[in-house]
What we know:
The complex is a heterodimer of chains A (110) and B (116).
Chain A: E1 4-6, E2 11-14, E3 19-25, E4 30-38, E5 45-50, E6 55-57, E7 60-65, E8 70-75, E9 84-92, E10 98-100, E11 104-109
Parallel strand pairs in A: 2-11
Antiparallel strand pairs in A: 1-3, 3-8, 4-5, 4-9, 6-7, 7-8, 9-10, 9-11
Chain B: E1 5-7, E2 10-13, E3 19-24, E4 31-37, E5 44-50, E6 53-56, E7 65-68, E8 75-79, E9 88-95, E10 106-107, E11 111-115
Parallel strand pairs in B: 2-11
Antiparallel strand pairs in B: 1-3, 3-8, 4-5, 4-9, 5-6, 7-8, 9-10, 9-11
Amino acid sequence: RKEVEQDPGPFNVPEGATVAFNCTYSNSASQSFFWYRQDCRKEPKLLMSVYSSGNEDGRFTAQLNRASQYISLLIRDSKLSDSATYLCVVRSYNNNDMRFGAGTRLTVKP
Amino acid sequence: GAGVSQSPRYKVAKRGQDVALRCDPISGHVSLFWYQQALGQGPEFLTYFQNEAQLDKSGLPSDRFFAERPEGSVSTLKIQRTQQEDSAVYLCASSPLQSSYNSPLHFGNGTRLTVT
């Protein structure tokens, strides 16, 4: 079983739609959580960190549930430019490395 | 300022050849990570350095893979006797603070290795 698992996708949504991605992690020692975005044939780039109380950045909202070892990302009012692969990333306290999910591909259509 | 730099950008190797991939992290970044990303997959962890110390190499798929960071800055990932299954994008990332668990990773644009 992979340490970080994500919705398989792909998600194909119209512009303006709201879409949510889920992610679960298996290492209870995980300390930090992030969502990264990766465009086709590009490197991953940080979208947002995920804080315990949940956090919002414009149209993007991230939630963390430590008890269920679950992270989510909500995108409201989707734009064409949101089309990308979204990677859930978990950093553990005990070894400091960062583990990625396989990614969920989003395509926003006009 | 300069970001993470990787070279070469593309590498084609014949099966059995040795390859060396280079990563120049952001100056002053303590942590350095190597990942392998196959087509359509997320990055898979290979190894992690804190300064010159290789603290975790649990992700290296075989003893053909070797990484070093002798002076705590530039790192090299070496793959000996390449196999076709080694074909992937190899991503290097650095992070500024060893003890800040919220520090995000800054990625280079990767080396695309194709083994023929």
